[in-house]
Specification:
By secondary structure, the chain is an alpha/beta fold. It is built from 16 helices and 13 strands. Helix 13 packs parallel to helix 14. It starts with 6 loop residues before the first helix and ends with a helix. InterPro entries: DNA_mismatch_repair_MutS_C (IPR000432), DNA_mismatch_repair_MutS_core (IPR007696), DNA_mismatch_repair_MutS_sf (IPR036187), MutS (IPR045076), P-loop_NTPase (IPR027417). Keywords: ATP-binding, DNA-binding, Nucleotide-binding. This is DNA mismatch repair proteins mutS family domain-containing protein.
């Protein structure tokens, strides 16, 4: 089963987006090849749901994280080799030699560039393969199926010619025909696998370099049956001075009821948690320390739910439809992480109170999933304390220094009693402006 989510969640958490400079994809996209960038994009759209696969990928990334290695060839050499390998050649040596002889004649007669491009592409490929041979010696203790397959391909007797190939020097027509036939026909499958390995190598190095620079860590994936999430410090990966908070969710405390004033950091905290869980399911580094998590079937958020004027949806109705969508997925028995920021803020306080109370109570009965629900309506928390035994209550405080609010962004046990809205309004002298 694949990890399930939707566009609303990806937009809420700003996960994907190759052309969005603020996305998580852009944060990690330090790749040097087009194939590496495409692979990274695919990884962002295909989180994993198997603990062994997740831990295997994070283990490889951690391996590169600890070694500070560079991509073994320049971007230009790789681009030339990639273009060359993307073409085809004849199925026999004689057919290849005949075609090259024709291209050579055209180069002499009318300055046709095909022969020169072929020569440059093959030389770049030889250079790339030799550089990869040297790189593999640096990571000889890396143990993955893909790594071992590439090593075997380069060490096969059919690839021994590489040791004698004149690197960087023009090839004779006979050499060009021989090597072209070997690389693009005889060893076609092997070279395609090597190219794919280079894309993975690009991603591993790029992602681990970003993680090292930002002080990210690697989470441990656990079987879903353990039903736990814990970290000593989770923060938002895109914020350089983010405040980190601890969090534990488990079967008997699977709902976090979160309160706090606007600007206190509730939305940022919830986004931090959602992002950490999503990246962890990719096997990627996270902005969280000592993180362990039971794999989830999926992740749904409701943070920035837009109205839909074209369909005639008000903001409140859009919220209701969002809750309905998530309820359908929860009712199917999926093990999910669900994040609701300010449930039913598009309606009046009485309806919001009743709806928040009812929805939270119903969701809390599904102890196989984790829920984080925030609200301004703190009175709901008092009723939930009476009616549910599996909720934990936390808030993000506001500290008043005179008439000036300060937000420490530290998760604190309990339900907030902060009511400083009028103080902030008075600070901004709004009432004086309209008198």
């Amino acid at each position: 089963m694949s990890f399930i989510t939707d566009k609303q969640t990806l937009d809420d958490l700003n996960i994907t987006g190759r052309f969005s400079p603020q996305s998580l994809f852009s944060l990690f996209n330090a790749t040097r090849t087009r194939g590496g960038e495409k692979l990274l994009d695919r990884m962002f759209h295909e989180p994993l749901s198997d603990p062994a696969a997740i831990n295997s990928r994070s283990g490889v990334l951690k391996y590169f994280h600890e070694r500070e290695l560079s991509f073994p060839v320049s971007a230009q050499v790789f681009e030339d080799a990639e273009a060359y390998l993307g073409g085809s050649t004849g199925s026999s040596f004689l057919a290849v030699a005949g075609d090259l002889l024709r291209k050579k004649a055209l180069e002499t007669a009318v300055k046709d560039e095909q022969y020169g491009h072929l020569q440059n592409g093959l030389l770049a490929t030889i250079g790339m393969l030799n550089a990869l041979q040297g790189f593999l010696q640096k990571v000889s203790d890396l143990s993955t199926g893909q790594f071992e397959a590439v090593q075997a391909a380069l060490n096969t007797h059919r690839a021994k010619w590489l040791q004698d190939a004149p690197e960087g020097q023009p090839l004779s027509l006979f050499q060009l025909a021989r090597y072209d036939h070997l690389i693009r026909h005889v060893l076609r499958e092997e070279t395609e696998n090597i190219l794919d390995f280079m894309y993975h190598l690009d991603v591993y190095i790029a992602v681990s370099n970003v993680a090292r620079a930002r002080g990210f860590s690697y989470a441990q994936a656990l079987p879903k049956e353990q039903n736990i999430f814990r970290t000593t410090a989770v923060s938002h990966p895109a914020l350089e001075k983010a405040v980190a908070n601890p969090l534990t969710l488990q079967e008997d405390r699977n709902v976090l009821f979160l309160t706090g004033a606007n600007m206190a950091g509730k939305s940022t905290f919830m986004k931090s948690l959602g992002i950490a869980v999503y990246l962890a399911h990719m096997g990627f580094p996270v902005a969280a320390k000592d993180m362990q998590f039971s794999v989830r079937d999926g992740l749904y958020t409701s943070i920035n739910v837009p109205d839909n004027l074209n369909l005639g949806y008000s903001h409140f109705y859009a919220e209701v439809l969002r809750v309905k969508k998530v309820a359908e997925e929860v009712a199917k028995g999926h093990d999910l992480l669900v994040i609701f920021d300010e449930l039913f803020k598009g309606t009046n306080v009485k309806d919001a109170y009743d709806a928040t109370l009812a929805v939270t109570k119903e969701f809390s009965t599904y102890r196989n999933s984790f829920f984080v629900i925030s609200t301004h309506i703190i009175e709901v928390g008092d009723r939930l304390k009476e009616d549910c035994d599996n909720l934990q209550f936390s808030y993000l405080p506001t500290i008043m220094e005179g008439t000036v609010p300060r937000y420490p962004y530290t998760l604190t046990a309990g339900i907030t009693s902060d009511r400083h809205g009028m103080v902030i309004i008075e600070n901004e002298k709004i009432l004086e402006m309209i008198e």
